[in-house]
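Researcher: Sit down with what I've pasted below and flag anything odd:
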Amino acid sequence: MKKKVTILSIDGGGIRGIIPAVILEYIEQSLQKKTGNPNVTLADYFDMIAGTSTGGILTCFYLLPSDDENGLHSKYLAKDAVGLYVENGKKIFKPKRKKPFSRLSNLFSEMYSADGLEKILKEIMGDVYLSQSRKHCLVTSYDVVNRKAVLFTTPKSRENEGEGYRDYYMRDIARATSAAPTYFKLAETRSRKGMTDYLIDGGMFANDPTMCAMVEANKTVFEKCANPSISDLYIVSIGTGKEDKKYDYKKAQKWGIMKWMLPVLNILMSSSSEVISYQMKQLFSVAGCPKSYRRLEPELCNAKPEMDNVSAENIKNLKDAGLHYISQNAEKLDKIVEDLIVNS
């Protein structure tokens, strides 16, 4: 049987990235148990990983090569990604002011300093370039100067230095994809060849990057298959907690620009994921392979929907939400593990 090209896609959602991180830890540990190899990682079983915002940070994290000479293994295990959020959440979302910031002050600048996030990304990812990633990847962002979507993808030829103008530090890509407006200032990135971009969160146009990943895969030469069509793909797409917050009609109809600012961002990101999920299900169904698209949509349970709620209680609730999804969907997740092994 012809093996399919496997793709992992991870939504955006700030600190809610804990939920997919917990689920992916389960998948990785199940792969280790099934294969009898405690050293295998997600990058050994996915041919491409894609992410937006917090999902983009996870993408870069999972694809970091080990520090050995050849970089043939992953630097971290999936469980380390959970620790990344649990241990550093408050450092990432650290208010710019020592005193509780007022709504008025936030009208004139972003809520959080990017210093903590940049320091953490530097410590974790070092000076690794996109071209050194273990597998193909796609991370989304948006160029506010040139007004265009930016897709950070693995340079087609890792040996071709001429591709350096599209080669960036992984830490800078992670910073750019997570530069959510109103939360962090925009990111300035420089490629290996000196090209400068000014970028914001990819969730502005693709909070669920699955469609972008599928299109990129279609023009990519994989070892298994060159330019795979839909029937050649196996995609696992993971959300960061289903958003069900409702807005009161009577209150909303009186809102002005400032009142709508955060609700619009929230609605924009969740609706984007909903549309992409619907489109992907239809495409794979029409192609005759509906089971080759696996959308995992965990509930928030007791966790709060805010992307920046890093209280100890909420972080625990986010972890519990991931564990709850695992307990309720173990059979589905185990089938994914089996499918990944078959297609490896």
The two ends are 12 Å apart (CA to CA). The chain is about 40% helix and 15% strand.
